[in-house]
Amino acid sequence: MHTVYVIQSLRNGKRYVGCTGKRPEERLAEHNRGCNKWARANRPFRLIYTEVYDSQSEARQRERFLKSGQGRKLLNGRIPR
User: Fold this and answer.
1) What is the pTM (predicted TM-score) of this model?
2) Per-residue pLDDT at 81 exceeds 80
């Protein structure tokens, strides 16, 4: 199982779309620990959206779509900022 997830910064409202083979809560904890420079600058985060897929390739494809202009519009309609 692979999950596409969206987290939102509680500091500034920025969103991040990612894909993981881990549990989304586990990945959220990594972001909140500051797993990279961007995460350290924008933490803390909250998990706001998930989708589960059987294969990594399906999840990656959906992640790429959600990072596109059309995908951001879709997320804006589903998730209030």
Assistant:
1) 0.93
2) no
